[in-house]
């Protein structure tokens, strides 16, 4: 038996000596290169949580992010790719208010070199003024033209695209109940006339269509549609390819008729279908503003629904445009665009009262802002949304409050979403927010 053990031991030693399998090369020390600053977006998710995202257009793909305080390493997190191609990392750490942190972003190793980017001087601030309640999930949004709020402000109508079938839904804004109205055979705009009636493109069942039409391929039937009876009634022929249709204000709507044949725009009284017509040779139909829910606006002017006359609210320069007027407070909001020395477009907005500018924002490249489609301004404070592009500085997307008397602006709700939103601010401080994938109700905490 001893001999067997001896033979086994000798054989084992021999086999170890004969193992000539090549071992993989392991670099003993990689070269670390300081790659400078990196463009990023910071989105606080909670008091102890931060999401940092990086553009898919970076030449070197980030692989890790390291949270540091001075020279001490606090957290190391992996950077992963999202479906959109953007890469991001979520860092969880008990951040302390007012404390400055910094990040090292490690790019993927190229041969034996590691690139370190830096994000300096980050102070965590998570603020949340609202509770979010999902009212409706959308499969595919059709944009701002596919929803409207009834003049009573009791209902919101919206079209959802589900596997190329269009479904019309009505949301009760008091109860948040969602009602299926039925499929929508046309993808045209919807405009609310009443709680149970819409303007939309008609179909073959549309009643009272004239025997002779304006003709041409650029023609659609605009009809009243009753959501209870599902009956269509003719209103006018409009342009399907180039048309603009305002919201319904004071039971009037401004539309573009077929541009190649009728060559007119019309302000239509929906009560008796009388109209004021504007020949297109001196009317720029592209300047009908479709996203004013309180007024009919054309070319930076108010349209008087009684007689069709235009009036200036404020004198604007060539780089500015009228956004809307808050009738309750008299504030007028305008947008402005400038270019810096490099030719980059910079955006900002202004507020006026009694013809005097009372606020002018800074001008920022790539920044977008979203004022509410229906205001609730209290004590001269307006709440609006800002979204920032990737930058080497810390910018936080979200809702901001702006005191129009003092000019003080502060973040009140972290909320980062690249898609446009349309916010109806209700008198109780809550917000109905229509977004690309959902409808929310935001309620003050």
Describe this structure in words.
This protein is mostly beta strands. Helices cover 4% and strands 47% of the residues. The protein has a domain at 31-123: Immunoglobulins (Immunoglobulin-like), CATH 2.60.40.10. The chain has one helix and 37 strands.
* Coarse morphology: elongated
Mean pLDDT: 89
Radius of gyration: 30 Å
CATH topology of the domain at 31-123: Immunoglobulin-like
Spatial strand sequence of the major β-sheet: 1-9-8-4-5
Give the total of beta strands: 37
Short description:
The protein is mainly β and 445 residues long. Helices cover 4% and strands 47% of the residues. It is elongated, with a radius of gyration of 30 Å.
């Amino acid at each position: 038996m001893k001999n067997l053990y001896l033979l086994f031991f000798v054989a084992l030693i021999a086999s170890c000596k004969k193992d000539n399998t090549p071992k993989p090369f392991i670099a003993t020390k990689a070269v670390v290169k300081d790659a400078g600053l990196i463009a990023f977006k910071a989105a606080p998710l909670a008091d102890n949580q931060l999401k940092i995202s990086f553009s898919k257009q970076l030449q070197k793909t980030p692989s890790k992010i390291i949270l540091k305080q001075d020279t001490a390493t606090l957290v190391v997190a992996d950077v992963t790719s999202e479906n959109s191609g953007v890469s991001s990392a979520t860092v969880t750490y008990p951040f302390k208010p007012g404390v400055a942190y910094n990040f090292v972003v490690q790019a993927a190793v190229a041969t034996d070199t590691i690139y370190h980017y830096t994000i300096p001087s980050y102070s965590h601030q998570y603020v949340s003024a609202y509770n979010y309640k999902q009212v409706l999930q959308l499969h595919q949004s059709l944009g701002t033209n596919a929803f409207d709020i009834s003049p009573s402000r009791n209902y919101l109508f919206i079209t959802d695209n589900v596997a190329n079938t269009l479904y019309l839904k009505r949301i009760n804004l008091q109860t948040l109940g969602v009602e299926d109205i039925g499929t929508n055979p046309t993808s045209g705009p919807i405009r609310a006339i009443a709680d149970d009636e819409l303007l939309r493109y008609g179909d073959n069942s549309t009643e009272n269509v004239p025997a002779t039409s304006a003709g041409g391929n650029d023609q659609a039937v605009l009809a009243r549609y009753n959501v209870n009876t599902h009956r269509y009634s003719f209103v006018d022929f409009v342009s399907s390819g180039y048309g603009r249709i305002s919201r319904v204000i004071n039971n009037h709507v401004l539309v573009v008729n077929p541009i190649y044949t009728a060559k007119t725009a019309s302000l239509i009284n929906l009560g008796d279908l009388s109209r004021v017509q504007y020949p297109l040779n001196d009317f720029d139909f592209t300047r009908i503003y479709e996203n004013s829910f309180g007024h009919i606006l054309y070319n930076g002017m108010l349209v008087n629904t009684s007689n069709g006359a235009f009036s200036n609210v404020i004198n604007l320069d060539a780089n500015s445009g009228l956004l809307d007027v808050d009738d309750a407070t008299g504030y007028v909001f305008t947008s402005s665009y400038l270019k810096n020395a490099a030719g980059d477009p910079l955006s900002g907005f202004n507020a006026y009262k009694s013809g005097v500018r009372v606020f002018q924002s800074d001008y920022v490249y790539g920044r977008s802002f979203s004022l509410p489609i229906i205001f609730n301004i209290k004590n001269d404070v307006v709440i609006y949304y800002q979204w920032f592009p990737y930058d080497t500085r810390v910018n936080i997307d979200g809702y901001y409050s702006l005191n129009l008397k003092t000019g003080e602006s502060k973040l009140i709700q972290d909320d980062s979403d690249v898609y446009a939103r349309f916010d109806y601010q209700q008198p109780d401080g809550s917000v109905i927010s229509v977004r690309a994938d959902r409808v929310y109700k935001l309620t003050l905490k």
